[in-house]
Design brief:
single chain; mainly alpha; 4 helices; 62% helix
Length: 76
Amino acid sequence: MTNPDYFKKVLEAQIGGNHYKDRFEIEPAEFILKNNLDFPTGSVIKYVLRHQFKNGKEDLEKAKHYIDMLIAKYYG
């Protein structure tokens, strides 16, 4: 069983910049975990949200890669 207080404390920390904490009310990790999203879907959300503030086009290319994974998984 997880400790919700510890989990909340862990989510408050952001290592390597402020591209989520300063811009969004809910960080992608919190949204992804609360909605039980799979890794590729969560990655799409993360990279699309941060592209303007971190790695630009590279982040959108990463999101596209995960979208391609989802297409392959669900639609062949």
